[in-house]
TrEMBL record:
Signal peptide: none annotated. GO terms for molecular function: dCTP diphosphatase activity. Pfam families: MazG-like. SUPFAM superfamilies: all-alpha NTP pyrophosphatases (SSF101386). The lineage of its organism: Bacteria, Pseudomonadati, Pseudomonadota, Betaproteobacteria, Burkholderiales. This is Nucleotide pyrophosphohydrolase. GO terms for cellular component: cytosol. GO terms for biological process: dCTP catabolic process; DNA protection. CDD domains: NTP-PPase_RS21-C6_like (cd11537). It comes from Paraburkholderia sacchari. InterPro entries: dCTP_Pyrophosphatase (IPR052555), DCTPP (IPR025984).
Length: 127
């Protein structure tokens, strides 16, 4: 018999989303195609589609795209595609994407100290 904790942690919105993503995948028997390699390739492809939404546009045109309901919806869908694939990559590789992102922010805090990096776009090795 498995003991359960008296106050289990409720699932987060991200947990519920991951459950939806996996249920969608499994209902279509797509797990067989979701190798780590294929998921990483697909993430890059979807990121390219996200780039296409702003290709050849200046900042004013991009702002207009975001202000337009159809343009914004398209941008949201492309971002969601990238996000879903990133979730699947992390799930397949067996790591917590939220923890990995938090760890990366902490690393960047050491690489880009505010007193050296504020106001410039140089790489950390050039500070």
């Amino acid at each position: 018999m498995t003991e359960s904790s008296p106050n289990p942690t409720p699932p987060t919105p991200l947990d519920r989303l991951m459950e939806q993503v996996l249920a969608f995948r499994d209902a279509r028997d797509w797990q067989q195609f979701h190798t780590l390699r294929n998921l990483i390739v697909s993430t890059s492809i979807e990121a390219g589609e996200l780039l296409e939404t702003i290709q050849w546009k200046d900042d004013a045109q991009i702002a207009a795209l975001v202000a337009d309901p159809q343009g914004r919806a398209h941008l949201e869908q492309e971002c969601a595609d990238v996000f879903i694939y990133l979730l699947l990559v992390a799930h397949t590789a067996g790591f917590d994407l939220v923890k990995a992102a938090a760890d990366k922010v902490r690393l960047n805090e050491t690489r880009y100290p505010a007193n050296k990096a504020r106001g410039n776009a140089r790489k950390h090795s050039e500070l």
